[in-house]
Write a sequence for this structure.
């Protein structure tokens, strides 16, 4: 006798899937015959033990589902806050001064990423570089995700510096052109990948983290969408970007907005860590409970 949910958990676990691998056929589309499935053998505990296993796995599934819903809710709240705060539609308490217009070229100085590097130069050497994905997927550069690159002494390359902004120069969609990430940590002997460019902020009235949130917001995405050039792949012209005008608050308000959004990101990251831990816990529980290693 099977408890249906136990059977569902078991069939979806690799302990059972591994039995099916020799019988899977097809190149583009994989398939397996009913007779092959019918011929598999499974070790089945008594119904009361199946029920207890289901209860344990259902609890961890409920935890995972609740975390996923909470993360979705927090992300929606953050997106709403970005839309309100980064456009000036909503002001934080105590800030009433009007926002000012600035041309991007007046924010700082542009520079290029690594040049003249081949495949053999990456993954080795004593220098580090910020990857394309690190820029594309973060508002704040993750310095724990830097990768190695070989840069010889005397090479003419641009090192990155705390406070710099980075933008990806191209993407398959106009919405993902010019995604921005700020470097908020001190690093040494570190460079930028060749598919991005840097903006070293020299205007003392600008706060890099605020600008990173701004360019990644709906407001910033609209700017980049207009600037994106191409048909099948879209590119961002530094020249055109430099002529763009943005409207931002004074530095004190920039800092307040950026830190509020950063606190939201930290909370979301903490929830993601809990979710990953719960998912790994479920994998471990399934491996132990569905094989009988733990009773």
């Amino acid at each position: 006798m099977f408890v249906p949910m136990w059977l569902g958990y078991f069939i979806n676990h690799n302990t059972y899937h591994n039995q099916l691998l020799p019988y899977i056929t097809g190149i583009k589309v994989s398939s397996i015959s009913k007779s092959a499935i019918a011929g598999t053998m499974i070790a089945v505990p008594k119904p009361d033990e199946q029920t207890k296993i289901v209860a344990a796995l259902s609890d961890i599934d409920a935890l995972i589902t609740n975390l996923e819903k909470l993360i979705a809710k927090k992300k929606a709240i953050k997106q709403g806050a970005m839309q309100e705060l980064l456009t000036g539609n909503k002001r934080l308490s105590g800030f009433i001064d009007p926002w000012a217009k600035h041309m991007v070229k007046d924010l700082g100085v542009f520079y290029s990423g690594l040049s003249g590097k081949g495949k053999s130069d990456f993954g080795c050497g004593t220098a580090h570089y910020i990857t394309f994905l690190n820029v594309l997927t973060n508002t704040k550069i993750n310095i724990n995700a830097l990768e190695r690159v070989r840069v010889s002494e005397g090479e003419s390359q641009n090192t990155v510096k705390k406070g710099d902004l980075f933008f990806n120069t191209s993407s398959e969609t106009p919405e993902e052109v010019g995604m921005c990430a700020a470097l908020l940590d001190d690093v040494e002997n570190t460079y930028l990948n060749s598919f991005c460019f840097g903006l070293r902020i020299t205007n003392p009235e600008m706060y890099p983290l605020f600008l990173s949130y701004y360019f990644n917001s709906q407001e910033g995405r609209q700017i980049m969408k207009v600037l994106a050039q191409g048909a099948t792949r879209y590119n961002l012209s530094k020249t055109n970007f430099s002529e763009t005008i943005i409207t931002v608050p004074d530095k004190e308000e920039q800092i307040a907005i950026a830190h509020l959004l950063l606190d939201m990101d930290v909370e979301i990251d903490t929830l993601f860590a809990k979710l990953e831990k719960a998912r790994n816990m479920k994998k471990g529980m399934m491996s132990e409970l569905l094989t009988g290693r733990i009773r």
